[in-house]
Design a protein that fits this description.
Number of helices: 1
Shape: elongated
Number of strands: 8
Oligomer: single chain
Low-confidence stretches: 166-170
Mean pLDDT: 77
Distance between the termini: 28 Å
Order of helices and strands: HEEEEEEEE
Largest sheet: 8 strands, antiparallel, barrel
Length: 190
């Protein structure tokens, strides 16, 4: 009976020890001319299949300042990820790949053209939501702080083939979007 009780107590502990949770913050440098800056908070839950491989799920909240007019965007990506560590212990470098879907909400100034002068006039604000695929590649370092805590420092490139609609003047134009993000995060082994 003691053996069964010990197994029932230890089994969830062993299973949970392979999980970790990570919270990270990033500043982005979008590569498209009409996006000024981005900031992001990511929450990841990872499962370690070995000392060098982790697989997980990430949800993020990214705020974009689109231009000096005050246009804003909020992206909410949901992605699966795979991370490979270059070593098993100590300071470890890693490579990471992500794929998922992003929900984009953007709030922008609405312009209209009035003929015959073709003068563009501000008519108000508008907002829209659309979904697009999102892919990411990253690299970084995991620095052990304590047995259960790691500091993550990294860089990630996010790419989405469908981009924001800039205004109602070019309503059918969808631009690709990419950004390079510098990340800092804390990871806790459950």
């Amino acid at each position: 009976m003691r053996i069964i009780l010990a197994v029932l107590i230890l089994l969830p502990t062993i299973a949970l020890s392979q999980y970790s949770a990570r919270v990270s913050y990033s500043q982005g440098n979008p590569t498209y001319r009409w996006i000024y800056s981005s900031e992001s908070v990511d929450l990841s839950v990872m499962y370690a299949t070995s000392e060098q491989w982790k697989f997980g799920l990430t949800i993020a909240w990214q705020y974009l300042m689109l231009n000096s007019d005050g246009n804003q965007g909020i992206m909410t990506p949901l992605s699966i990820s795979a991370r490979y560590y270059t070593s098993e212990k100590g300071l470890r470098g890693y490579f990471e790949g992500q794929a998922g879907i992003v929900r984009r909400y953007y709030h922008y100034l609405n312009y209209s053209k009035f003929n015959p002068s073709d003068e563009v006039v501000l008519t108000g604000w508008n907002s829209a939501i659309h979904y697009a695929p999102l892919y990411g590649l990253g690299l970084g370092a995991a620095i052990p702080l304590e047995p259960s805590w790691e500091l993550n420092l990294g860089m990630q490139i996010d790419v989405s083939p469908k981009g924001f609609q800039r205004s109602n003047i070019d309503a059918n134009v969808r631009d690709g979007f990419s950004q390079t993000r510098l990340l800092i995060g804390i990871e806790y082994k459950l």
